[in-house]
């Protein structure tokens, strides 16, 4: 039975009394009508999906535009409507969100992986302009995961794997812990069904005993707080299955060896009370050395704030405790979505600071030449554990685990990275490839004539550092930088084929052969192959050496590249892609970069003749919001 509008709007008003009832009613009825002929895999009316997606967001006190866009998010993709129609009925704001959630249509891609990657890029780009795009996508994914049982097994595993590798980490980056936890647990259910079933049964088997112990522990803490005049909520929270499973794998433990299945949470009224509470807890129980973390003074990059500690409870059991204020608690559970709870019902500029990482990630990941590179780089960035290090002034800098002083330098400012000459950590000079640790104080010494070294690319960790170093050295993203016994391999050696006995290969510096030049190769005394131009003056020195049989590999066919400047308006990109699709041209990649009220779009297309290029350019130029279009060469803006 599908929920009726009266019941739905009552739920909306419970969490957002200022919601626009008439606008939401219009979206509810439009979506219900648009999907009336569609069915879900379960056989239920399709409208249940956008409805449940919206209900997930309602509980986060979502604003009216978000609720409407959630109800409408599948209307374009399912062919029920167009961007123009939604814009006309619901306005540009809602239409823009819905378009950001709509997959690319009418374009031929070389593989499903390419198609998925471009859709992910498109959605991330839309998210940088409006965080609500990602919030709706996460709610959409959560409802799909809740109903995954209706799909065949291979599809269940594929969707669950993507959820665990992409969307759960994005929820974490946005500080949405409750969303992340449920997505991970549901993914575990389909990826590791036996482990999931085991955890459910084992946790349920001693639930009563565990709850009794938890109640006694909570009472002990409450009594201690009350005696010192601190009013606080003290509660036990069952840990997510996936986090327990990960701990078992990481520590090589059996379930019976995992005692901390419950975490204790203390919610105070003020920040000073948080610090007072930690002192009381440490008086009542023996704290575990090295387990105290102050994320209030130094918040995580996703905005998370709490005090963490672990203490020794009864029977030698370790208990984890988190202490935070009520506002910190909502932010910890809801992340950026908690904005509505504290900042009214509409979006404001503070969203931009909370999603800076997405903008950086999108810029850096545009360096990825292939779909595989983009997806793998994205996973690495999302999964990195973070450390916090400090500038000499005490400013906290968040970096991925394994970062070096060079990563730190670029994170502080690009110019500091470009002119970095040496580093001090905690007052001691260290190598530039030194692995930083949590709490380090880092000082970078710069020199005006210092420049990045190619060798830095072999140890820097952050995408920003890699991108800036490559740009300064003029190294394209698809050129690999490898080190072997202190010797740099020539990047052109991926371009020649050895037909005789295989050996390490390098190009001579005396004549620097270029692709297609007549060449001759020799085996050297150290067991390598060196390649020379056939007219090289140094050949007489190698006359007694055995020759190697080599030949140039055929160069890949180059694609055509269009650079298009457009006004930032709804539907303009779709119009461009539609023209290219109708011309029967395959797209290799799309790059976009926002510049104030304009967007630069760079499209790499399959090779075609000049007449076809001119025809496509002419058709695209006729689009109203296209300001400039030209065929170009070199790197697109987003790769610089």
Textual characterization of the structure:
With 640 residues, the chain is an alpha+beta fold. It folds into five domains: 187 residues, Hypothetical protein af1432; 141 residues, Beta Polymerase, domain 2 (2-Layer Sandwich); 90 residues, Beta-grasp domain (Ubiquitin-like (UB roll)), CATH 3.10.20.30; 69 residues, no CATH class; 80 residues, Alpha-Beta Plaits, CATH 3.30.70. Helix 9 packs antiparallel against helix 10. The chain is globular.
Structural class: alpha+beta
Estimated share of beta-strand residues: 15-25%
Q: What's the story with the biggest beta sheet?
A: 6 strands, mixed
Tally of individual domains:
5
Output mean pLDDT.
Answer: 81
Could you state the CATH homologous superfamily of the largest domain? Hypothetical protein af1432
How many helices does DSSP assign?
24
Rough shape?
globular
CATH class designation of the largest domain: Mainly Alpha
What would CATH call the architecture of the largest domain?
Orthogonal Bundle
End-to-end Cα distance, whole Å, is: 54 Å
CA gyration radius, whole angstroms: 29 Å
Number of strands: 23
């Amino acid at each position: 039975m599908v929920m009726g509008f009266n019941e739905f709007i009552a739920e909306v008003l419970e969490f957002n009394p200022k919601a626009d009832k008439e606008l939401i009613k219009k979206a509810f009825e439009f979506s219900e009508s648009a999907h009336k002929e569609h069915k879900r895999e379960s056989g239920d009316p399709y409208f249940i999906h956008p409805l449940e997606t919206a209900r997930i967001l309602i509980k986060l006190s979502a604003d009216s535009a978000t609720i409407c866009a959630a109800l409408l998010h599948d209307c374009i993709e399912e062919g029920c409507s167009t961007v123009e129609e939604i814009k006309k009925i619901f306005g540009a704001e809602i239409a823009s969100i819905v378009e950001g959630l709509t997959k690319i249509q009418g374009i031929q891609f070389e593989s499903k992986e390419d198609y998925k990657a471009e859709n992910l890029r498109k959605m991330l780009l839309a998210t940088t302009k409006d965080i609500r795009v990602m919030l709706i996508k996460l709610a959409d994914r959560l409802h799909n995961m809740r109903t995954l049982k209706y799909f065949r097994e291979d599809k269940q595993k594929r969707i669950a794997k993507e959820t665990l590798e992409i969307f759960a980490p994005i929820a974490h980056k946005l500080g949405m812990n409750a969303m992340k936890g449920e997505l991970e647990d549901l993914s575990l259910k389909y990826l590791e069904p036996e482990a999931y079933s085991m955890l459910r049964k084992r946790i349920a088997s001693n639930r009563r005993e565990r709850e009794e112990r938890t109640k006694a522990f909570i009472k002990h803490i409450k009594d201690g707080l009350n005696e010192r005049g601190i009013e606080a909520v003290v509660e036990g929270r069952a840990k997510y299955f996936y986090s327990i499973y990960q701990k078992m794998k990481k520590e090589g433990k059996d379930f019976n060896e995992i005692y901390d299945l419950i975490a204790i949470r203390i919610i105070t009224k003020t920040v000073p009370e948080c610090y007072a509470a930690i002192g009381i807890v440490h008086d009542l129980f023996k704290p575990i050395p090295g387990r105290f973390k102050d994320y209030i003074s130094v918040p995580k990059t996703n905005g998370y704030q709490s005090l963490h500690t672990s203490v020794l409870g009864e029977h030698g059991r370790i208990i984890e405790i988190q202490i935070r204020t009520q506002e910190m608690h909502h932010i910890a559970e809801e992340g950026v979505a908690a904005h509505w709870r504290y900042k009214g019902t509409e979006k404001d500029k503070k969203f931009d600071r909370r999603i800076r990482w997405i903008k950086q990630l999108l810029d850096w990941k545009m360096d990825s030449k292939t779909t595989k590179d983009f997806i793998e780089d994205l996973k690495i960035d999302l999964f990195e554990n973070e450390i916090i290090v400090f500038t000499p002034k005490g400013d906290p800098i968040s970096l991925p685990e394994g970062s070096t002083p060079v990563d730190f330098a670029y994170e502080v400012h690009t110019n500091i990275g470009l002119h970095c000459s040496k580093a001090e950590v905690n007052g001691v000079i260290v190598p530039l490839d030194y692995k930083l640790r949590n709490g380090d104080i880092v000082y970078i010494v710069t020199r005006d004539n210092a420049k990045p070294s190619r060798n830095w690319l072999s140890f820097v960790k952050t995408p920003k550092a890699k991108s800036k170093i490559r740009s300064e050295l003029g190294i394209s993203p698809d050129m690999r930088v490898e080190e072997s016994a202190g010797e740099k391999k020539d990047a052109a050696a991926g371009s020649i084929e050895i037909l005789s006995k295989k050996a390490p290969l390098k190009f001579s510096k005396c004549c620097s052969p270029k692709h297609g030049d007549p060449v001759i190769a020799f085996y050297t005394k150290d067991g390598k192959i060196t390649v020379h131009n056939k007219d090289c003056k140094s050949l007489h020195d190698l006359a007694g050496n055995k020759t190697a049989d080599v030949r140039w590999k055929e160069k890949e066919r180059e694609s055509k590249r269009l650079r298009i400047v457009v006004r930032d308006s709804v539907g303009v990109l779709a119009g461009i892609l539609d023209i290219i699709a109708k011309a029967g041209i395959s797209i290799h990649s799309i790059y976009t970069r926002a510049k104030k009220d304009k967007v630069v779009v760079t499209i790499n297309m399959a090779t075609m003749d000049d007449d076809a290029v001119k025809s496509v350019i002419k058709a695209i130029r006729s689009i109203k919001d296209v300001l400039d279009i030209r065929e170009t060469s070199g790197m697109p803006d987003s790769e610089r």
